[in-house]
Structures are given as structure tokens and as C-alpha cells.
Amino acid sequence: MQEIHATCVALPSPIGPLGLLLLGAPGSGKSDLALRLVDAGGWLVADDRVRLEAQEGLLQARPLPGFEGLVALRGLGLAQIARLESAPVALAVRLQPGAGLAADAEPLPEESAERIAGCDVPVIALDPAAASAVPRIRLALTARAAALAKPAEPPGRRAPLERRGGPLPVVLVTGMSGAGRTTALKVLEDLGYEAIDNLPLNLLARAVTEGELGRAVAIGADVRNRNFAAGPLLEQLGRLEADPALKVTLLFVDCDDEVLQRRFTETRRRHPLAEERPLADGIAAERRLLAPLRERADVIIDTSSMALPEFRRSLAERLALAQGPRMGVFVTSFSFRVGLPREADLVFDVRFLRNPHYDAALRPLTGRDAAVADYVAADAAFAPFFQSLTGLLQPLLPRYEAEGKSYLTIAIGCTGGRHRSVATAEKLAHWLAVLGWPVGLVHRDLDRGQEGKAPA
Q: Is 173 annotated as a binding residue?
């Protein structure tokens, strides 16, 4: 393992999250560019110093212990942002002012190679201050992902990537109008899916099974579809699930009724079922119509309190292509004051633990900070609780997986969603990762600015 001065950010790609090494002198803009990439849907792996280890021909990037998710901002100090524990490095970006800004510059930056930590890594040069830096990086990463996905087969005989790696992923996207179904399709398209919206239900199975689909597909279906009804859609879903060449996931995008009413009112859009009745009645009618689909859904994402970057990360964590065959486990911390995560399969309440909110030195910190995590873990009740929690989960997870569950959401809650639940969720996610489960981690209410407003 080798440690270098660099910043590493992971971005979604058609073959899963891939890491980018940002190389440059101090003050060259590595952290600023990392923030822009995370805001565009990525995750921070490590800032300033990165640990690299060669694995199967690629470098695996990890942060230094204790610096997970921390980025250094000039004049502001350290800040916590969305993170991944590790990522395979697919590309390095050398930050050079003025690079690639000539009038005749190609859209895709010219690529060279450098020897880094014992591996040859493709490198491009970019001006980090350029407005086009992020899209040019995305172009280069997409090309790199395609190169990594190429099989060693003669030209013309290559099977589609998803079919070679197993069944072709098919995601049916439905949910409440205004909850984010269209946005979900756009995000899945960014993740490498072919997105099809408002396909007539009688063409659904034919489009998937008879088409020459060389990539994963996401299909949107909602009450705007002609002759839409839950029963026929579930019948089509059953036909698709019976095909062993397909891996079918039903995604339901949900939202609280009050939030939906506010969204429709603010945007002045008309609800599809409220043409001749009040908005609230249209929402209620749609919820009744979609109830069988929500009950049948493999993945439910509630967007009531989600910002767009969090929604993107949630979809990427659960539905990124080239995931391992194991069931994905999604851990989220939350505030009871805001409300339960409606997509949760298992909910655990940690409000019985000693509260860092009442320690003036710890109050402005979060459960991601070592001081708060140590404070929570020092509670005499924490060790037996965590032992019981992991003792419960360890035999349950394989049973859930054996029943065919693709995703399991575990929610950890405290009063404010900043201290106890965050520290516990971090520790639980680490425990799950050590056991080899694919883990996603989100702190839903961490950034709600709750300091001093209520115990956390």
C-alpha cells in the first residue's frame, strides 16, 4: 500500500462507481473540483492524501483512517460531504491552469499514462477552473468505463456487457406524480440505463424481450399511461420476472401527500387525476390506484425530505450497474422529529443513549466526528445494544437474501438525526462492509441545521 498527495472522487458509471485521482500542487484546486464533482452526483473517497493498493490490475483508493468524508476548504476548514469507503481508480486528472482551453481542443481530453503506486494509470490534463471541467471529466470517465468493460473476444462476437455479467438489469419506475419519477429515469440514464418513458403497457414485455437491448433498461410507467392500472402492470412484471435472462426491479418513488400538494401548488402544474376535482382528492385517488404497486415494489425511495443530490446518491447506491450479486444493504440515520423513513425495512431507536447535545463542546459536531462517536460508544448501554443489534442482523441478512430480497434498508433514529443515530449508523455500515455486504450509507437529516434547536 502506498500513500500519495492527491484527492480521489468516485463518479457513477455504467460499470459501477469509478475513482478519479485529482493530481496537482497545493492550492491547484483539487478540493474545489472535488466539491463540484460531488455536487454533480459523485462521492468523496479521500482528500489531500490517498492510500492506494494494487488489486487485479487496478489501484484501489481509500482515505486515511479518521479522515473519511472530510474535505479541506480554504478559509473554512474541514467539511463533511458524501463519501465512499473505497473505489477502483479508473483515471487520473492532472490539474493545469489553461490546459485544454484552446479553440481547437477536442471535447475529450487527450489521454496519456503515468506509473502510480505500481500501476499504469490513464491521465488527462485539465484546467480545474474551466466551466467545462466536470463534463469533460465525465466524457473521459465514460470512455474509460467502456474500455474497462471490453471483453477479450474477437470483434463482432461480443455479447452485451450486462448479459455477459449475468441477467440484463430491467428497472420499472413508477410512483406518485410529483414524487420524482421522471427525475429517477434521468438519473438512471446517467448511470448507464436506456431510459424509456410512458411506454404503453401492452408493449412493455415485447420491448424488453424482443428488442436488441445491449444495455440495461429503465422504463417509466405511471397514471399518464393510456389505460393504466396496477393489475395489468403487475401481470407484465410477472412475465418479465419469469425470464431468466432478465433481472427485474420495481422502483416506487413516493412522497408525503402534504409535500406533493406543496410541489404542485408551487410549480402550478396540474395533477393528472385532478382535472375536475381538488388536488388533494386527485392525490388520494392516485395513492389508492398505486397501492398494489407500492406493496409489490423491490425498492421504495421517499423523496419527501430529499434534496436532488441525495436522491441521485440514493439511486446510485441501490441501482448502479455491475453491483455484486449479494443483497444490497442501505443504512440511513434520521431524525424522529422529521419522521420515519418510509422506505425502511428495519427501524432502530437509539434515543436511550447518552446525548452529546448536552455537552457544549460536542453540540456543534456530528456523529461523524471521532469525539462524538467515542462519546456515544462510551455509554454503558451502547456495547450491549450494538452486540445485540449485530447478533440480530447477522443471521437475518442471509435469510432475507435467500428469500430473493435485492435490497434491505436499515434506519437508525434519534431526536435530531445529528449525533447518536449518525454515529451508530456509521459503525453499523462499517460492520456490514467488513462482513462483505454491499453497503450504502446516507445521513438523511444531518444537514438540516438543527444545532441548538432540539436534542440530537
A: no
CB distance 2 to 74 below 8 Å: no
Domain boundary among 149, 176, 197: 149
Give the chain's domain count. Answer: 3
**pTM score:** 0.44
Q: Is 222 marked as binding a ligand? A: yes
Check: CB of residue 66 under 8 Å from CB of residue 78.
Answer: no
In a domain, 286, yes or no: yes
CATH code of the domain containing 71: 3.40.50.300
40 marked as binding residue: no
Residue 319 lies in a domain: no
Residues 46, 132, single domain; the answer is yes
Q: Is 224 annotated as a binding residue?
A: yes
Write the pLDDT tens digit of every residue in 162-210: 344 568 899 999 999 999 999 999 888 878 788 888 776 766 776 676 5
Collect contacts of 190-195 with beta carbons under 8 A, ≥24 apart: 190/12, 190/41, 190/312, 191/12, 191/13, 191/14, 191/315, 191/316, 191/319, 191/320, 191/321, 192/12, 192/13, 192/14, 192/15, 192/216, 192/321, 193/169, 193/217, 193/218, 193/321, 194/218, 195/219, 195/220
Residue 269 annotated as lining a ligand binding site: no
Compute CA 388 distance to the chain's CA centroid, rounded to the nearest angstrom. Answer: 28
Q: Residue 225, annotated ligand binder?
A: yes
Q: Which residue shows C-alpha cell 420491448? A: 207
User: What torsion do the CA atoms of 182, 253, 330, 376 make, to the nearest 10 degrees?
Assistant: 110
180 is in an annotated binding site: yes
- Burial of residue 253 (number of CB atoms within 10 Å: 0-12, 13-18, 19+): buried
Is 350 annotated in some ligand binding site?
Answer: no
Task: Please check whether residue 154 lies inside any domain of the structure.
Answer: no
Closest listed residue to residue 25, CA positions, set 83, 77, 97: 97
133 and 214 share one domain:
no
Instruction: Say whether 183 counts as a known binding-site residue.
Output: no
Residues 35 and 107 in one domain: yes
Q: Residues 131, 206: one domain?
A: no
pLDDT value of position 300: 94
Show the domain range for 262. 161-298
Residue 115 domain-assigned? Answer: yes
